[in-house]
Structure formats: C-alpha cells, structure tokens
Amino acid sequence: MNQQMGKFITLEGNEGSGKSSNISYIQSYLQNIGIDLVVSREPGGTALAENIRELLLHKHQEPMHPMTELLLVFAARAQHFNQLILPSLERGAWVLCDRFTDATYAYQGGGRELPEQYIAELETLVQKEVRPDYVLLMDVDVATGLQRIAERSEKDRFEDQEVAFFERVRACYLARAKVDKQRYFIVDTNQPLEQAQKQIEQYLQKILLESGIDG
Ligand code: TMP
Predict the structure, then answer these.
(1) What's the rounded Cα separation, in Å, for the pair 43 and 50?
(2) 65 C-alpha vs ligand 1 centroid, how far in Å?
(3) Residues 110-143: tens digit of each pLDDT
C-alpha cells in the first residue's frame, strides 16, 4: 500500500532574521491542528550530522577550503536526509526543517561564490528528486540582522564573515524566492514579531488549504 508522502517545509533566512522565534510558532500552529510533525535542523538533525555541524561552525586554526565546507554540508545532509527526513516523509509525517539546501545555494553558492552547478549536482546525488514543498524565507536587512546577532555572546565561523558575504547570501535567497512564488514565501522580519507571525499564519493557511487539511 502506498502511504501518501508528508509535506516538507523548510525555514530559511539570513543571519539575525528571527528563524528561531518563528520556528516554534510554526511548530505549535501545525501541531495544534493535529499534524504529525517532525522538527529538525541543518546542518545537523542526527547525532552524526550534529558532529559535522560542530566542525562547520567551529573556528579552526587551519582555514576551511570552500569545497571542504560544501562537501561537509552535504555529508551532514546525506546522513540527516536518509536517517530522518526521508523515512519521516515516507510514513506520512510532515517535516519542518530549520534550513536545508536553499542555505547551501545562499551560503556556499552566494556567500562563498562556488558554482551553482556543483550544488545542483550534489543536491540531486543526495536527495534524488526530493525538494522542499514549501520554503518560508525570513528576510531582514543585512544591517538589522547583524545588529541583532551582535547582541549574542560568541560568533561562529559563519557569523564572523564580512558584510558583503551576508549581502550575497541575502541576494541569493531573494533571487531564488522570486523565480518560484508557488513554493517560496517571503516573510518580512524587519517588522515586529507579531506582524511577521500574521504573515506566516496566512502562508500556513494556504499550505493547509493546498494539502486538503481544514486548519
Ligand atoms: P543556524 O545559525 O541557522 O543554525 O545555521 C548555522 C550556519 O550554517 C548558518 O550560518 C548558515 C550555515 N549553513 C551553510 O552555510 N550551508 C548550509 O547548507 C546550511 C544548512 C547552513
């Protein structure tokens, strides 16, 4: 018997875009209407993939080559995807993931300026035909986002990049969102949290409607 695949929703955004505050809002919203939901994150999501996350975020004395970074991101993703994401979707659960391959296009493609083709090839190798059904992009001005993260304690290897890197990351996310308005929803997180959440709620209602669920 063929079980219908669950929906795969990802949350993306540039640094300081308010992903963490909004993911718990989305999680409660979907669980309150009875959806069987698996919440995870990338890089990471399984014990092994979380070890790779440590390698990626930690600052090392030896500089990490962009190609090493790209392959580590996909090594973590291969583990997470096969161990957790795909089995969950196949049993009909919905998966809500804090970052996925759009982040690789934005950070390794946009930020590190690696050819998009490399990412597309690895994406197909690791995920076959599976892509997120919906991507919620939390978008904030780079300056505002950086100001928000400046208030946090210690910066990781990515947070420590120059402003131009984050401008490229944001531009890449926005460019991807603009060419596929059916799958991508841009949430303006320059506005106060309650207003951003109203916008998120509208998108969630659209997703539920398209999935035939009475929200
Ligand atoms: P987080 O701060 O949202 O937990 O994400 C950790 C960092 O990992 C963030 O700075 C973006 C980076 N990252 C990539 O560079 N490529 C990727 O594919 C993913 C998933 C994250």
Answers:
(1) 7
(2) 16
(3) 999 999 999 999 999 999 999 999 999 999 999 9
CB distance 166 to ligand 1 below 6 Å? no
Residues 21-73: tens digit of each pLDDT: 899 999 999 999 999 999 999 999 999 999 999 999 999 999 999 999 999 99
The structure tokens listed for 206 are 């659209």
Can you state the angle between helices 19-32 and 193-210, rounded to 10 degrees? 40
Q: Could you give the CA distance from residue 80 to residue 46 in angstroms, rounded to a whole number?
A: 6
pLDDT band at 2 (very low <50, low <70, confident <90, very high): low
Q: How far apart are CA 204 and CA 213, in angstroms?
A: 11
**Ligand 1 in reach of 79 Cβ (< 6 A):** no
Tokens, residue 53:
């996350």
| Global pTM exceeds 0.90 | yes
The angle at the Cα of 9, spanning 7 to 11, to the nearest 5 degrees, equals 175
Question: If you take atom 19 of ligand 1, which residue's CA is the nearest one?
Answer: 103
Find tokens 């308005």 and name the residue: 181
39 Cβ partners below 8 Å, 6+ apart?
23, 27, 95, 96, 97, 98
123 Cβ closer than 6 Å to some ligand 1 atom: no
Residues 63 and 30: their CA atoms lie apart, in Å, by 41
Report whether residue 165 contacts ligand 1, using a CB cutoff of 6 Å.
no
Q: Kindly state the helix (H) or strand (E) to which residue 135 belongs, with its residue range.
A: strand 134-139
